[in-house]
Every structure is written in C-alpha cells, then in structure tokens.
Write the structure tokens for this entry.
Amino acid sequence: MPPKADINKAGWEQSEFPILCETCLGANPFIRMSKQEYGRSCGTCARPFTVFRWNPGAGSRFKTTVICQTCAKVKNVCQTCLLDLEYGLPTQVRDTALALEAGAPTSDINREYYAQNMESKFEGDKSLLGSSRTTSVGKEMLKQLARTDPYYKRNRPKICSFYAKGECTRGTECPYRHEMPVDNALSNQNIQDRYHGKNDPVANKIMSAHAEAQGLKPPDDETVTSLFLSSLSSESTELSVRTTVLRSLPSIDANQLRSVVHVAKSRCAFVNFKDRSSAETAAQAWANGLEVDNERVAVKWGRSKAKTAPSATS
C-alpha cells in the first residue's frame, strides 16, 4: 500500500533532496548521499521523514538531517545545523532582529497538527518568512552579523570520549578528535532551543557581543533595568512608544514592561522593565537603534540611582 494511501502514514514526509546550507553540504562537488525513507522522526514535530546521510569531505564526520523539510521551511533553516539559510545565524538572532514571533508550538499535543497545516500552505520551496513585516534597523543588524562564507570547521569529527577518559588506544587511526572537552555554556545545546529560538547559548553569545560593540554593554549595577531613548519624533507619544516597544520584543511578555515615561519637551523616553533579563534582551534587540514613528532613535542604558548618604546622628 502506498504511504499516502495508508491513513497511518498520511502525515509522513517524502523528499528527493534535503534542504541544506553550504557549510553542511561541504566543499566536495562530487558528494555521495544515502537516502532512507521514514528513517527517523523529526526532532521538532516528531513526524517520520526521509533521512539523508553524507560525508561533507575529507576529515569531516558523517552528517545527517535531523528535522523534516516542513519544519525547515517554516523557519527557513538548514535541516542539519538548524541555522538560517540566508544569514547563517541562529533563529533566535534572526527573530530578535526582525521582531518575529515564534509561531511553532512546543508541546507534543499540537505540534504534529501544526506541521501538517503548515505543509499545505507552502508553494513549492517557498518559506513563509518573506511575508513578515521587517524594519531597516533589523535588516542592518543581520547584515552586520551575517555569516556569508562557509565555515567547514563545523564539520570536524566529534571529540573522542575515550581520549577524554585517557583510555583511547587507537592513536592516529581514531576517527574522532583527540582534544579535551571544554565545559562552558556553548557545550549545552539542543535541537528544541535552537529551532524555537529560546535560550540558545550560541545566539546569546552573538547578540551580547554585538550589543557591547554598539555601546550597549550592560552596566555593572544589577539594579539598572531601564533604557533611554533619545531623538524621538515630535509626533511620538507615550502610547506610540509603548506600542513600538512591545511590537519589537515579541519574546518578552507585556507584563515585564513596568512603565514608559515620555518627555515630549526633550523628545526622549525612559523604558523601564521589571527585571534585568528583559532589559538586556531589549538592549540586544535594539543594538542598532529602534524605529519609532518612522524615525530611528538612539538607545542607551539608564544610569544608576545615586545612593543617598546616611544621615549623621548626633
């Protein structure tokens, strides 16, 4: 019985070639690739899909697809590394710069249903991200951070676990790298966080470094949770500033915004958050500025409150 005729296989995916970035595909133009229909379940929607496996080139490890093509088209990412196909960046960086809201569900109950509905909306290989509203500030940020050249070092073999324990006896014949693993935030990565753009350590490192390069290094005082907006338009109001702030930060809940203080005479505003993490997320998203009422405004961290000296007692 054909797969599509079987009601149990109606949502399963068949494909002839994977959706890959240039880095994962490798530098070898004469690549050999194996194909296995319904070889595994998708790492995000859990639907069976066609799995491809290949070796990108000499000195590289074998790579395989980990998500289905429907999920890859929804986010416009590579099926193997889950990085954006246009900019070569994690989805969290792209979504933060373009103020895109993560629409894919994360629960096991409706993610397969969502994937089936999204599959019917695609026209050929077209992604749905092109229809979203973007700003020139976000596009400028992505152009500065984009990785246009392939980074084949990412295809290296994984570290030999026996070597790390001091038990590897294969020497130079070992297909894995003989290096000691480094325990840091980048060593704790997973498919779900990378795909949905939540708490991705690689994305956090990229955005924090870019914010510091643009002069938005978080102050040492942890109590500072305010950002200062200057050069506002004369037509800006407190409501327009608040609306723009919430629209540009879809990953932050509206309740995390404490207040917006607009000073019309000085054409500036203070955006106050309830916690430090929300303020740092906003600073990273507004590293290249913020568009308010069709005007690009400058963003700076607020200043620490002056500590009052204790009164002298007689």
User: Anything to note?
Assistant: The mean pLDDT is 85. The first strand starts at residue 33 and ends at 41.
